[in-house]
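Need C-alpha cells for this chain, all 108 residues.
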Amino acid sequence: MSKNKIIVSEKTCTLKDVLDIIGGKWAMPIIYILSKGKLRFKELERSVEGINTRMLVKELKNMEANGIIIRAVFATVPPTVEYTLTDKGEKLLPSIVSLHNWGQEYTV
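Here are the C-alpha cells for all 108 residues:
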C-alpha cells in the first residue's frame, strides 16, 4: 500500500486556507443547501437548522468575499436578496458529500 505524504509548509498551507473558507460550523451545510438552487435569506435561514441570523449573515459574507456564493439584491419593497453558489462553490460539493459519507460510516 502506497502512502502519500502531504508536505506542509507554513508559507504555502493550502489546507489551512481551505479551512479558513469552509471550516466554520455552518459553511458546509449552507453550501449543501444552496446546491439545490437559489434561495432567499429567510428560506436559507429556515433551512439551516440551529443557525441564528447573526451567524448566517457572518457566514454568507465570508463565503461571498471568498467567491463561494453570489448575493443578488433586487430593488423591491422590502428588498429581496437571493443567494446562489458560484462555479467555485459548486466544485466543493463532491468534497462535502464525501465528508458526509465518511461521517455516516464512522461517526454514527
